[in-house]
Amino acid sequence: MAYSRLRRSSDQRKALLRDLVTDLILNGKIETTLAKAKELKRLADKMVTLGKANTLASRRQAAEFIRFEKDEEGKFAIQKLFSEIAPKFANRNGGYTRVIKTGFRRGDAAPLAIIEWVE
Q: Into which family does the record put it (predicted)?
């Protein structure tokens, strides 16, 4: 399976992607660079697939990856994934997120994108 290294070591890359997946679950939308958004799309779709399975094993697999953080209402990210996000996609077979290109960052001209859940 090919993936983008994002110019980071493996531990830094894993930490970055864990943070991004958690933030996407909590906020519903993130603005980041295009390369990070494309990598995040793969992982976010995998988390929703685990959420749709809704077994103890899938909860544990998701909990290994998602950070232990709360949203404004006090719900943990893992709870929100399994109770709100995954049921919304119950009759959809993949393609749970969309990446929208938004332009270029001012400082280094990196391509920017917004990643969000599909409604």
A: Belongs to the bacterial ribosomal protein bL17 family.
DSSP E strand boundaries for the chain: 29-33, 97-104, 111-117
* Residues 68-109: tens digit of each pLDDT: 999 999 999 999 999 999 999 999 999 999 999 999 999 999
CATH number of 10-117: 3.90.1030.10
AA letter at 79:
Q
Is residue 52 within 8 A of residue 44, CB to CB? The reply is: no
pTM listed for this prediction: 0.93
Q: What is the dihedral of CA 65, 71, 76, 77, to 10 degrees?
A: -30
